[in-house]
């Protein structure tokens, strides 16, 4: 279980206003199969999660970047969070939130 509390006092969630955003460019910035990010990440991804606490940002990315058939995108989410100056708890796994 993720033990880091989010700003609203729970264990993290993705606000509906963020879920409604278009993350297409963020998906493009993450080369999920090579587990690397390209130069456009800071421009295309970071603004989408700016203002969210770390765990909430991680959950939003998990939900929005999920691709059926890809077993686990947690590493990719961690790469994006790191690039955006956010922290992801060591025990965080996207599979718990999809």
UniProtKB/TrEMBL annotation:
This is Hydrophobic seed protein domain-containing protein. It comes from the Eukaryota. Residues 14-95 form the Hydrophobic seed protein domain. The lineage of its organism: Eukaryota, Viridiplantae, Streptophyta, Embryophyta, Tracheophyta. InterPro entries: Bifun_inhib/LTP/seed_sf, Hydrophob_seed_dom, Plant_LTP/defense-related.
């Amino acid at each position: 279980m993720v033990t880091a509390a989010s700003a609203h006092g729970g264990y993290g969630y993705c606000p509906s206003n963020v879920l409604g955003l278009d993350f297409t460019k963020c998906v493009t910035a993450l080369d999920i199969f090579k587990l690397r990010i390209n130069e456009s990440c800071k421009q295309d991804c970071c603004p989408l999660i700016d203002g969210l606490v770390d765990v909430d940002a991680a959950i939003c990315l998990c939900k929005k970047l999920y691709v059926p058939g890809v077993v686990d995108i947690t590493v990719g989410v961690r790469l994006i969070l790191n690039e955006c100056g956010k922290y992801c708890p060591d025990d965080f796994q996207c599979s718990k939130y999809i």
